[in-house]
């Protein structure tokens, strides 16, 4: 093992890193971020931006740290006056043509050119020649190109050719006139991963049409989360302001999504901001009109009506968009009400979209994040390949019917009409909740803490990014309180506590705790089964 390690000195610190590590990556181990544009850990390294120059003792010239690999006994200075002087010169070249339009640039506040110039650039520019002008181009899809701002790092070109493996971008012209362009008139239209080129563009040359002029980078809060739009479980950051999600960005996790996410997941956030939400518990006495009540009254009514139904058969249907905690609490409640079956549904896509250059990542057919979690909890999947139907047994055979987080869009208004007690827990109202005796408002995953289990059994946490609307509460909290009333056991007070109970009861989750999951998740024991 030790033979595979190389020991060198970087900025006075002795470090040991695996053979083949670049100086740029080795410097990160002591917290030094050497400025760079063309280098990206998920792409090849052309060493063309010349910004990552560092001083290596004994070398006749400054070395590009993104392609120079470590050597035993090497002495490297990344922050010496000489190294910074070289980089200052390179930055000055970039500013010869780059417009100083930071006040109107979408990238301002998170731009590598802005940051590096503040860190290491000259205080005043010396350029007197007019700047080169390219103007703005629509690259198709969600991407606008501001050619004047481009620093020609070619990250976008390499992403499309190496990772998406659909060559839609190239460099045309030469020298000072070099510019990024699309091959065909359709540009990026029809590609499925192009939002990533906006993320990796180090400056404001590629911007998202969807996000354009929506918010300044420094006004956004960032909350780690998990994409809820398919069972891949890409790690993401929700960027929020004024209690709204303004954009979704991928969060690095080499086990799941690397640095990337698909365009479908990136754009599937407006439903979280939809203001047409259920905000208070609703009770229907005559099956027609509903009245809003407080939580105590709603839960008391539900328990009272359930008690009147002797030998009730309980049927529950859950959405695979619900968290492990929500689903686990639902299964517990069904048991406490006398036992019955809980089924789940997930919308399905016709095909899987694999990211060819990073094939462990695909937009999966299951368009919900917690299909595996529902399976591990012993729930039976219903519905055809398009995720519709399959609910006849629920509607017809349950005298108590509970629906969790499933908008039942494909169900008619008669759904649940024959049940003695129909309880609907949802973020939004649904025509199929028309006959619900009790409607309970729940939070979305962006408003609560919890976990999803992705398609290969990785359990991953998400955190609350938004305030819930009105009286909406996490489903696990509501269901846990009902269960506690029926069983006399204490109600779980936190999602971590509830996950701990799941972990004890379900072999597949055996031993896992929230601290074990951290920010990157951990694998469930997929073969271990659902437990009792
Ligand atoms: S558009 Fe952005 S990512 Fe592409 S070459 Fe220019 S600076 Fe680099
Ligand atoms: S691949 Fe799936 S989880 Fe990842 S961003 Fe796309 S929809 Fe979301």
Chain-averaged pLDDT: 93
CATH topology of the domain at 282-528: Rossmann fold
Q: Regions with pLDDT < 50 over 5+ consecutive residues? A: none
Please give the largest β-sheet.
Answer: 8 strands, mixed
The residue fraction in helices comes out at 10-25%
Name the assembly state. Answer: single chain
Amino-to-carboxy terminus distance: 44 Å
Provide the β-strand percentage band.
15-25%
Radius of gyration: 27 Å
CATH architecture type of the domain at 282-528: 3-Layer(aba) Sandwich
Task: Tell me about this structure.
It is a single chain. Among the domains are: 2-79, Ubiquitin-like (UB roll) (Roll), CATH 3.10.20.740; 282-528, 3-Layer(aba) Sandwich (Rossmann fold), CATH 3.40.50. The chain contains 14 helices and 26 strands. The longest helix is centred in the N-terminal third of the chain and has 17 residues, at 81-97. The protein is elongated, with a radius of gyration of 27 Å. It starts with a strand and ends in a 9-residue tail after the last strand. The mean pLDDT is 93. The strands form seven sheets. It has an eight-stranded mixed β-sheet with strand order 15-14-23-22-21-16-17-20. It has a five-stranded mixed β-sheet with strand order 2-1-5-3-4. The protein has 532 residues and is an alpha+beta fold. One iron/sulfur cluster binds at residues 227, 229-230, 232-234, 257, 261-262, 264-265, 363.
């Amino acid at each position: 093992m030790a033979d595979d390690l190389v020991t060198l000195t970087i900025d006075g610190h002795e470090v040991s890193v695996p053979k083949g590590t670049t100086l740029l990556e080795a410097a990160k181990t002591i917290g030094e971020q050497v400025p760079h544009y063309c280098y990206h850990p998920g792409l090849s390294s052309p060493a063309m931006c010349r910004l990552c120059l560092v001083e290596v003792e004994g070398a006749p010239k400054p070395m590009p740290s993104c392609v120079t690999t470590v050597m035993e006994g090497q002495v490297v200075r990344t922050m010496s006056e000489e190294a910074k002087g070289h980089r200052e010169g390179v930055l000055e070249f970039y500013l010869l043509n780059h417009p100083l339009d930071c006040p109107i640039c979408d990238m301002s506040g998170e731009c590598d050119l802005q940051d590096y110039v503040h860190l290491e650039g000259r205080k005043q520019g010396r350029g007197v020649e007019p700047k080169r002008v390219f103007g703005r181009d629509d690259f198709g899809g969600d991407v606008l190109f501001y050619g004047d701002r481009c620093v020609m790092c070619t990250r976008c070109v390499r992403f499309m050719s190496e990772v998406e493996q659909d060559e839609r971008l190239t460099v045309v012209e030469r020298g000072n006139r070099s510019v990024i362009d699309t091959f065909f008139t359709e540009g990026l239209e029809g590609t499925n991963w192009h939002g990533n080129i906006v993320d990796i563009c180090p400056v404001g040359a590629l911007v998202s049409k969807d996000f354009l002029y929506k918010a300044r980078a420094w006004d956004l809060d960032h909350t780690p989360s998990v994409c809820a739009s398919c069972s891949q479980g890409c790690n993401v950051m929700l960027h929020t302001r004024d209690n709204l999600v303004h954009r979704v960005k991928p969060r690095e996790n080499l086990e799941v999504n690397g640095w990337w996410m698909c365009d479908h997941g990136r754009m599937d956030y407006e439903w979280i901001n939809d203001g047409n939400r259920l905000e208070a518990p609703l009770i229907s006495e005559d099956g027609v009109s509903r009245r809003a009540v407080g939580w105590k009254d709603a839960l008391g009514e539900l328990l009272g009506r359930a008690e009147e139904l002797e030998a009730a058969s309980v049927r529950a249907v859950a959405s695979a968009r619900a968290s492990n905690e929500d689903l686990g609490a639902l299964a517990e409640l069904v048991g406490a009400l006398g036992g019955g079956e809980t089924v789940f549904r997930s919308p399905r896509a016709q095909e899987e979209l694999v990211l060819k250059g990073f094939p462990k990542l695909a937009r999966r057919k299951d368009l919900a994040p917690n299909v595996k979690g529902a399976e591990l909890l012993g729930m039976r999947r219903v519905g055809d390949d398009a995720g519709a139907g399959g609910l006849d047994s629920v509607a017809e055979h349950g005298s108590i019917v509970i629906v969790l987080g499933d908008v039942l869009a494909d169900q008619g208004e008669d759904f649940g009409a024959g049940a003695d007690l129909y309880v609907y827990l949802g973020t939004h109202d649904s025509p199929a909740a028309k006959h619900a005796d009790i409607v309970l408002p729940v939070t979305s995953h962006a408003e609560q803490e919890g976990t999803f289990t992705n398609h290969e059994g990785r359990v991953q946490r998400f955190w609350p990014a938004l305030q819930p609307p009105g009286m909406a509460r996490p489903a696990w909290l509501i269901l846990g309180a009902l269960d506690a009333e029926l069983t006399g056991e204490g109600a779980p007070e936190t999602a971590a506590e509830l996950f701990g109970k799941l972990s004890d009861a379900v072999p597949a989750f055996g031993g896992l705790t929230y601290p074990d999951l951290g920010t990157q998740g951990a694998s469930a024991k997929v073969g271990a089964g659902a437990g009792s």
